[in-house]
Amino acid sequence: MKVGLRLGLFGVAAVGALIVAEPASAQDQALEYHIEEQKLGDALRAVGRESGRAIMFRSEIVEGKRSPRLDGTYTAEEAIEHLLAGTELVATPRDGGILIRGRSESAHAAVSGRTADDSDIIVTGSRIRGAPASSPVTVQTREEIKDAGVTNLGDFARTLTQNYSGGQNPGVSSNQGFRNTNLNNSSALNLRGLGPDATLTLINGHRVAYDGLSQGVDISAIPLAAIERVEIVADGASALYGTDAVGGVANVILRRDFVGLVTSARIGASTDGGNEQQQYGAVTGSRWASGGIMAAIDYSRSTAILARNREYTSALDDTATLVPRQSQFSLVLAGRQKLTDAIALELDGQYNIRRSANQSPTLTSSDVFTNGLYAKPKLTSFTVTPTLRFQLPSGWQGSLSGTYGQSETDITSLTFSLGKQTRSTRLIYTNDVSAIEATAEGPLFRIAGGDVRLAVGGGYRSATLDVNVARTPTGGLTTTTEDVSGSRDVAFGYGELSVPLVGPENKLPFVDSLRLNAAVRYENYRNIGDVAAPKIGLIYKPHHDVAIKASWGRSFKAPTLYQSYQVRTGNIVPGASLVGFPAGQAVLAVSGGNDSLRPERAKTWTVAVEFEPSFITGFRVEASYFDIRFKNRVVSPITDTLNAFNDPSNGDLARLNPTAQQIADEIARLPLGATNFTGLPENEIVIGGILDGSLQNAAQQTVRGVDLALRYRLEFTPEESLQLSASGSYQMSEQQLASGKPIVQLTGLVFNPPHWRGRVGGTYQRSNVSFSAFGSYIGGTLDNRLQPHVRVTSFTTLDTIARIRTNASRGVFRGVDATIAVTNLLNEKPAFVRKALAVDLPYDSTNYSVAGRVISLTVTKAW
After folding, report:
1. Is residue 16 part of a domain?
2. Number of domain units in the chain
3. Are residues 362 and 307 in the same domain?
4. What dihedral do alpha carbons 269, 270, 275, 277 form, nearest 10°?
């Protein structure tokens, strides 16, 4: 960028806070504050966290306002008076808290519609109000996501440098090894590449139904217009949130304070062809004296990207799907109602339905309806969570919540051979979740460094998975080939303690503050056993500009129901596609679940350094090191499919010269039957080997690396600003399948996470116009499946976004916001990858996108 180009980004106006009674001793105490110049709403919330006082305000009255720097010792009232200097706002004590309002605004109007917990910010990574997390936390607001040219949370997940795109992702091909489960085209977070099932995704802090296949959570089901922000902890969090949070946890915070109606429309397409997009949405809400409601609705559809749309896939049949066509309808509701002065009711609900289609020709010389598999997945999901929140004596708060949700994936598949439909198969995965949880949090006692606070909770959770497969031969009778159910019932309890050993009143030379966090979670799994997951964290600030965080914990993850009951599938492939296999023979490659899997166990630790210098306003940098060590990791045991029969350590997983009875028995175990990729009639196929990639427990796996994040905001005038950001992640991963087997490096190999990911960019804003540019880097990998080994080159893209908001106060142009985005401006293409089968994709779809340059226009209107 040229010198003088000024970039800026306004985040979402801060969520207002409600009054919660605190002990009188905390209300009058003078504390030392070091709060940088920033958005006024954020500064007010910071005072609320540090003082323990409830700061109440409506988001509209602080929107667009900046606070001065606050550096010194003040009471809460004095600190707020300093922050409000020069504005038309005033602060008034109310019910033990502090109410912020306009000078001409009544106190009743100012407090209208607030809930009991908005001011008591709980940051993901801790369950204690106002306590900083001992693990690094990444926060992205809705406006920051929009200014980056992102229009849905699935695409947002793929911009995170800690996230691996492989696994459950619409652009991922399911034919590249045993690594991917892209059958219903959902989008799930996959932090550190540990699998969607090892990243826990929450909505407003509570669980939702697992996705139908990977048993992660389909984050793309939440419309972007419905969210306030997303908080991500890429560190083991099992002690706080449950044993499936090994890779980390993401918390999607919904908007709870919205008045009016905003509609949006978006069109876009890939310049190379296909991927024609339409998206329409609306968000509306209302607020009254004791509550409010928000509703968001979103409909989107996109056409497929087929092999005919990309020159580098011209060797495939034109009808082969690279990215499936799909349509999606989503609805989110979030409401609240104050029942008494001490009790409030909240209700979150969501519904999603998505249809898509995938065409997989089994030959390159004929289309899918001549020889191939045509699949039509339909995903339907919903979750509802009511929560009661209580104000308790002595500054404590409690809650009681219940959740029920379901996600059903219904896939109809048609198999064609020699121009005729040979069979129809219907596969249904149904996931249910039901849970009840009670929590309480508050101060225990006060020590020299501040209040010692405790959070406790417990509850019961049940998850079930039903699998049904019905097969209908053409002209024959329908038979049920698979009908199984599994469940996981878990009783749990947890506690978290936050101890400020050194605070403003007893700080020492080179010890500005020192806080100890400790948590433990006990879970009892029916039919599996008991487990306790502890975590200890330390936050040390030698100076108020520097924070050093360290954490250590244990995690335990039971096999998911999908891993245990995944339907066994099989493909018959030419033996010539595998190294050293006899020509003229075929291989039956099978994969599936395993009901004998043992639980995974892991140790995680992280060290992070945060630097936010007071002498450089708006600058912040954070670096962290992470280390995850697994035992009994659930994996596919075949790491190198092409050389599987040349590796003696594979043993019975790669069987040569099976008997006719062994082949018949294996095919009989395939509810969907075997898909023929040889091009020969089935009665002419000679199967000379069986390759079994069914899930197993690996002996051990280690994942370690470094994350870096930097933000720098410059304010030139109240209406002109520049915000720059950069993030990067480096990762190493090793795996040993069994004792005596070699340790295999995973990261940096084709179809696995690359070593490096990075993203850098900025936004310039002047008055009502903003310009953004972001560059993303996905490192290259090594294709070591064949000799000679070949490098797969990296993937670098540039996105540009221009946004204008009208200044009209009335008329048709009032409240109009228009955004033009060009993603992958230079039309970067994925590098060529050698293929095992002729019908395989010639690129690594787990890492690199085939979308190419995409141009889109989005227009929103506030009514």
Report:
1. no
2. 2
3. yes
4. -20
pLDDT at residue 232 in the model: 93
Distance CA 192, CA 233 (A): 11
304: DSSP letter? P
Q: What is each CA distance from 425 to 130, 150, 422, in whole angstroms?
A: 53, 36, 10
Q: Residues 76, 80, 83, 84: what is their CA dihedral angle, to the nearest 10 degrees?
A: -170
Q: Are residues 462 and 403 in the same domain?
A: yes
Residues 639 and 540 in one domain: yes
Please report whether residue 7 resides in a domain. Answer: no
Does the pLDDT value for residue 224 go beyond 90?
Answer: yes
Distance CA 9, CA 145 (A): 11
Lowest mean pLDDT among 66-70, 110-114, 300-304: 110-114
Tell me the pLDDT band of 178, cut-offs 50, 70 and 90.
very low
- Kind of pairing between the strands at 260-270 and 854-862: antiparallel
pTM above 0.70, yes or no: yes
Q: In this structure, are 121 and 174 located in the same domain? A: no
Q: Is the pLDDT of residue 188 over 70?
A: yes
The amino acid sitting at 242 is G
pLDDT tops 80 at residue 794: yes
Specify the higher pLDDT residue, 209 or 10: 209
As a whole number of angstroms, the distance between CA 316 and CA 320 comes to 7
Q: Does any domain span residue 575? A: yes
Which pLDDT belongs to residue 116? 32
Angle among Cα 168, 169, 174 to the nearest 5 degrees reads 70
Tens digits of per-residue pLDDT, 506-529?
999 999 999 999 999 999 988 788
- Please identify, among 127, 155, 176, the residue that sits at the C-terminal boundary of a domain: 127
Rounded CA gap, 407 and 384, in Å? 12
DSSP state of 356: E
Give the integer Cα–Cα distance in Å for 164 and 190.
Answer: 5
Separation of alpha carbons 404 and 462, rounded Å = 10
Helix axes 76-84, 40-51, angle to 10 degrees: 170
CATH number, position 84:
3.55.50.30
Distance, in Å, from the CA atom of 670 to the CA atom of 422, rounded to the nearest integer, reads 16
CA dihedral 281→59→255→154, nearest 10 degrees, is 70
d(CA 64, CA 10): 8
Summarize pLDDT for 796-821 with one digit per residue, the tens: 999 999 999 988 878 888 889 999 99
* Residue 607's CATH number: 2.40.170.20
Per-residue pLDDT at 326 exceeds 70: yes
pLDDT at 721 over 60: yes
Q: Is the pLDDT of residue 212 over 70?
A: no
Q: Do 63 and 86 belong to one domain? A: yes
Domain boundary among 107, 127, 147: 127
Count CA atoms within 13 Å of residue 667 on its CB side.
18
Question: What are the tokens at 731?
Answer: 């990762």
Domain shared by 122 and 144, yes or no: no
The residue segments making up the domain with residue 76 are 24-127
Q: pLDDT by residue (tens digit) across 296-315? A: 999 999 999 999 999 999 99
According to the 3-state scheme, what is the secondary structure of 595-631? CCCCCEEEEEEEEEEEECCCCCCCEEEEEEEEEEEEE
How confident is the model over 144-172, as a mean pLDDT? 87
Residues 43 and 165 in one domain: no
Do 159 and 111 lie in one domain? The reply is no
**Residue 625 located in a structural domain:** yes
pLDDT the model gives residue 620: 94
Q: What pLDDT was estimated at residue 97?
A: 64
- Other Cβ atoms less than 10 A from the Cβ of 267: the count is 14
* pLDDT-based confidence at residue 21 (cuts at 50, 70, 90): very low
In this structure, the strands spanning 89-94 and 38-39 are: unpaired
Instruction: Compute CA distances 164 → 24, 292, 373, 594, 850, whole Å.
Output: 49, 38, 28, 25, 16
